[in-house]
Design brief:
Length: about 300
């Protein structure tokens, strides 16, 4: 049995969280992760409406039961926090406030009954979210898919564990029971899983994305800002995004092109130019599999591996 702070706090059976991947993690994916014993998070992106969030929350609860969680980009809330209001109105058990200082928002989330986690990429980030009063942190390493920092997961996890008394989870490159077992053995309380779920039929997003991930190896990713620029996404410069390579990245990554040039060359529904954010664990995803099966298998393998030391 994988018993940690996370499982006890949430009443779940597996210390696994489905990452709140914007544009990919909706209610169906979140619900299946929760039904399998973890906690699935819905990605609340800047462009999502309150109506969309409500629909996805209903789906997540129908599939996975009453437990509900969302992930938000903190930097975007400083300009407009209506998305946070919409999320909190749905009474989530967990809210992640990542990529920026969550201080203005933590008290509101707590008042709504939500546990607050923050993904962090450096020890400096840790100090910011500690001061903000979050309940736990997620050490997100450079291997992660989507937007992330520049320190590898294992070095960052060790540094964060040595630097805080808060519960610590890990994210980035964790796509099997071996990865989860390593996190738990190091002293972590659980793991976020993203890339391992991206070939699951419950994801939303472009139809070609699942097949491209299955065909990709772990060397077939790039850490880049060209997709943000092409789509006029105002992410702070310090966070690039890890995505599968394609003709677009081969042509434009590192080329220094301006946003309009990139936007003119970008087509979202074309696999040669559209973005598929995915991490360096891509090589571990070799088939399209239901999300629940992925989560249960990760938990079972980790339990079996850690049982050797009990």
């Amino acid at each position: 049995m994988l018993d940690t702070w996370l499982t006890r706090e949430l009443g779940i059976t597996l210390p696994l969280v489905g990452a709140p991947m914007g544009g990919r993690a909706g209610g169906a994916l979140a619900g299946e992760v929760t039904r399998a014993g973890g906690l699935g998070l819905i990605g609340a992106a800047r462009y999502n409406t309150a109506e969309w969030l409500d629909t996805e929350a209903r789906t997540a609860r129908e599939v996975g039961g009453g437990l509900l969680g969302f992930g938000l980009m903190t930097w975007s809330l400083h300009d407009d926090d209506a998305l946070l209001d919409a999320v909190l109105a749905l009474e989530p058990r967990v809210v992640t406030l990542s990529f920026g200082d969550p201080a203005p928002f933590v008290e509101r989330a707590h008042a709504a009954g939500a546990l607050v986690l923050s993904q962090i990429n450096t020890v400096d980030d840790l100090r910011v979210v500690e001061a903000a009063g979050v309940d736990a942190v997620v050490a997100q390493g450079h291997e992660a898919g989507g937007h992330t920092g520049r320190i590898g997961t294992l070095p960052l996890l060790q540094e964060i564990l040595e630097s805080t008394s808060l519960p610590v989870l890990a994210a980035g490159g964790i796509a099997s029971g071996r990865g989860l077992a390593a996190v738990l053995a190091a002293g972590g309380e659980g793991a976020f899983v993203g890339t391992a779920l991206l070939a699951s039929p419950e994801t939303v997003g472009p139809a070609y994305a699942r097949g491209r991930l299955v065909d990709a190896g772990s060397t077939d990713t790039v850490y880049t800002d060209v997709f943000d620029k092409a789509r006029h996404q105002p992410w702070p410069q310090r966070w690039g995004g890890r995505a599968l390579t394609n003709a677009f990245t081969e042509r434009w990554h590192g080329a220094g092109a301006d946003e309009q040039t990139l936007a003119d060359a970008y087509t979202a529904d074309d696999p040669d130019t559209g973005v598929v954010y995915a991490g360096e664990a891509a090589g571990l995803v070799t088939a399209e599999r239901p999300a629940g099966d992925v989560i249960r298998d990760i938990g079972a393998q980790a339990d079996e591996l850690l049982a050797r030391f009990r």
